[in-house]
Amino acid sequence: MSEIPDDLRYTATHEWARDEGDGIAAVGITDHAQELLGDLVFVELPEPGTDVAAGGECGVVESVKAASDVYSPLDGEVVEVNEALADSPEGINEAPYENWIFKVKMADPAQLEALLDAAAYAEAVEAEEH
Amino acid sequence: MLIFQHSRPGRRARAQAPKEKAGLDAIPEQFLRRSRPRLPEVSELQAVRHYTRLSQKNFSIDTQFYPLGSCTMKYNPRGANRLAMLPGFLARHPLAPESHSQGFLSAMHELQEILAKVTGMAAVSLAPMAGAQGEFAGVAMIRAYHQARGDGGRTEILVPDAAHGTNPASAVMCGYRVREIPTLAEGDVDLEALRRALGPQTAGIMLTNPSTLGVFERHIATIAEMVHEAGGLLYYDGANLNAILGRVRPGDMGFDVIHVNLHKTFSTPHGGGGPGAGPVGVGERLAPYLPVPLVDFDGHDYRLLTEKERPESIGRLSAFAGNAGVLLRAYVYAKMLGAEGMRRVADYSTLNANYLMKRLRAAGFTPAYPSRRATHEFIITLKQEAKELGVNAMDFAKRLLDLGMHAPTTYFPLLVPECFLIEPTETEAKETLDAFVEAMVRIREEAREAPEKVKGAPWTLPVRRLDDVRAAREPDLKWEPPA
After folding, report:
1. pLDDT digits (tens, 9 = 90+) for B318-360
2. Residue to substitute from B395, B414, B469, interface A, most A β-carbons within 10 A
3. CATH numeric code, A9-129
4. Among the four B121, B185, B204, B275, which has the fewest Cβ within 10 Å?
5. Chain A residues within 8 angstroms (CB to CB) of chain B
6. Is residue B88 domain-shared with residue B136, that is, in the same domain?
7. 3-state class of A77 per DSSP?
């Protein structure tokens, strides 16, 4: 069973979001997502300053098996991207919840609370298995 | 070993032949290069041995079963090869005048007509030199059509999530935004999601039918009606045409534009990147935009139509008229089969796939779409095996190589976890299909009793398990001479 920390929020498309204060949220992909993808070989980061909509494409993660879009869980503006991932995409495999992909300045911080909590995400993962 | 590593300065093909004076006098001094190109310098014998050895290391359709899903790795008839290699074809220069190329042009003209007829299209261009180039040409024609009508607000192409990766790539290359349409649990396009996605911004939809999930799209007539209603056009990706060849025509399903992979359906050699051929066919509405050149016949002579006669054409895709050698092989193949033979291709490719699926299922493997009949290919998921035995689809694939069979397509389509996409083609015998089932059963037994045998495979090939992660992260593509 993959790791699903209690203090994060999740999407059904396997992103996590963490409140960083000041209306900013960090976004990454879940442990379950990195397990499914296998060893990552490339991360395409969004451009800082891009406006994103919740559910909109915002970066790509690529493994030897597959390339997969990363979706923003939240409306807002990309304010920072994790440049270190460009050279070491394996960071996401090693520590998916430490290695965020981008940070978004939320247009509506209430959206964060409306995302799946750990229990609901665990259920979604479980449902997908069947 | 690379051919460069055999190289010694000054070594020539004909080592014992008298030295010839290099005939470069006619080239003006300023065009001569100052340094020698770094090409390998080897004897003819060394070159022959090098490439023969490489070919012996190869897995190929001529030596092994090759059920690589969605690639249609069928037998390439030697007859097609022999006729395409006739000196009159082989020695024809692409710039030879039309009066000297009537035989070749008549063959190409007939191929255009055959492809139009078997796909239900009004006209065909043979120009695209690969499937992806055919897709590009097809979407470019959709764009040209909307633009010619002053309908510039159509900015989106719809693509189901089961599509080949080339579909969204082609749409983006033509300047479109891509909107993904989800697939339902039984493999059909989600019509409700499609309805929500359609609108005045819709330029068209790209569909593969049967889809890459190994099932037929059951609501294609409804989809065609919905997309046309919204003012969009339908693009048919010919990747899986083998399943319906001669039986069902994309034109009759409502498609406006298609590409055909001759290197799949029409049995020309492929693998290792080509060469391929991806002719495009269109209905009347798109005919003016077909890429040039087209082969025309005025009742007496064959000639190539260019931008001059076809001013609305999207233009040329290559310097000449497509991959002539591939087109010729496909032409001979089509003539050998005739209409009756083409129907048998569809019949036997689907029969072989359904037989293989049933047998694998009976042996305890899990089809991804158990309620659906297979097309010319089908998917099994090794999710259960991965969970219970700790060996995944990649391990099974590598072990199959040891057992003398090329692995099916693995981990594609992305929707199905731990999957094999299996396409036996119509050219395989029942005994070969049975042997594949036995190999799969044997690997599962090995996974139970001696899992390292499967996880460590391949054991018997020229190379062991390759580090594909490192190859992707640190590609090493350039040979450098030792310092």
Report:
1. 888 899 999 999 999 999 999 999 999 999 999 999 999 999 9
2. B469
3. 2.40.50.100
4. B185
5. 36, 39, 41-42, 64-68, 89-90
6. yes
7. strand
Segments making up each domain of chain A, as ranges:
9-129
User: pLDDT for B415-448, tens place per residue?
Assistant: 888 999 999 999 999 999 999 999 999 999 999 9
B231 and B195 in a single domain? The answer is yes
Domain shared by B113 and B257, yes or no = yes
Tokens of B312: 């609305």
Same domain as B373, residue B301: no
Asked, for residue B25, whether it belongs to a domain, the answer is no
Residue B191's pLDDT band, with cuts at 50, 70 and 90, is: very high
CB A28 within 8 A of CB A101: yes
Q: Chain B interface, mutation test: which of A40, A44, A64, A87, most B Cβ atoms within 10 Å?
A: A64
Q: What does the pLDDT read at residue B24?
A: 64
Same domain as B270, residue B247 = yes
Choose the closest CB to A41 out of B414, B417, B473: B473
Predicted TM-score of the model (pTM): 0.89
CA nearest B417 in A: which residue?
A36
- Look up residue B400 and give its amino acid: L
* Closest in A36, A64, A66 to B469, CB measured: A64
ipTM of the complex: 0.76
Q: What is the pLDDT of residues B253-262, one digit of tens each?
A: 999 999 999 9
Which range, of B197-206, B321-330, B472-481, averages the lowest pLDDT? B472-481
Shared domain check, B161 and B232: yes
Exposure class string for B133-169: b at 16+ Cβ within 10 A, else e = bbbbbbbbbbbbbbeeeeeeebebbbbbbbbbebbbe
Containing structural domain, residue B130: 80-337
Q: How many CB atoms lie within 10 A of CB A24?
A: 17
Using a CB-CB distance cutoff of 8 angstroms, which residues of chain B are in contact with residue A36?
A: 417
Q: Do residue B469 and residue A41 have CB atoms under 8 angstroms apart? A: yes
